[in-house]
Every structure is written in C-alpha cells, then in structure tokens.
Amino acid sequence: MPDYSKPLPTPDPITQPFWDSVKAHAMQMQKCAHCGKFIFYPRAVCPHCFSRDLKWTPVSGKGKIYGFTISHQKVIQAFANDVPYVIALVELDEGARLMTNLVGVEPDPAKIKVGMDVVVHYDDVTDAITLPKFKPA
Ligand code: ZN
Fold it and tell me: DSSP labels for the chain?
C-alpha cells in the first residue's frame, strides 16, 4: 500500500466498530433501540432521546448530497496536492449524515447538486484504515 501522509482517524472504544465495518467494506452505524434513529458520529448516548441502547446496524451506503463545498485552498499541507477537491455532507437513506469527500466526479459546481444520489466508495488508505468516501450513484 502506498505511503499515506494525510491525517487519519484515531479509533477509540466507541468508534472502533465503525472503523472495523468500513474496513470490511460493510459500513455500520449506531441505531437507537429506543427511538429508532440512526446516528453519526458514534457515541455513547443517543442525541435524539438520550438512550444508551445503541446497536451497531448495517447501513445501505446509499444517500444524497445534503451540502457540499469545493476546496481550492492549500491551507492544510497534507491536502495541497489534491485541490480542488469536494467536501460533502451526505445524508444516508437511513437518515444519518456524515462529512466525507465526493470522488469520481469533477470538482465542478455545475456537475454536483444538492440532492444528488451517491453511494459509498471504500478507500483503503492504509492497512489499518479505510475511509468511507462517496461517488455518484
Ligand atoms: Zn434515540
């Protein structure tokens, strides 16, 4: 695997199941057994109803662009060679939203639309870490 010099997540006991699931290319998120909502990021307590009864549950990996921006700035040196690139907030069909990168499309605002259908793209960036990015469906 090529050297990867960008920032990486640091899984902890609460987030490890998420990172394990994306590593397996089978993303899971926590679903609240009390109110039924999916949540992201992983945490110990449901932000909707404060239940601690959260179950790791497979998600479809399908969703829509909720919002996006195209970064042209080389503020973060690790991403300087990637500009322009797309930072997107994706709302999964299950309702949870996650911040991600949109890949497989030109970083052109004329080609990306809020509400556009997207699907997860597992990017195995290191032996230990896979990042869930999204591409047009
Ligand atoms: Zn809940």
Answer: -----S------TTTHHHHHHHHTT--EEEEETTT--EESS--SS-TTT----EEEEE--SEEEEEEEEEE----SGGGGGG-SEEEEEEEETTS-EEEEEE-SS-S-TTT--TT-EEEEEEEE-SSS-EEEEEEE-
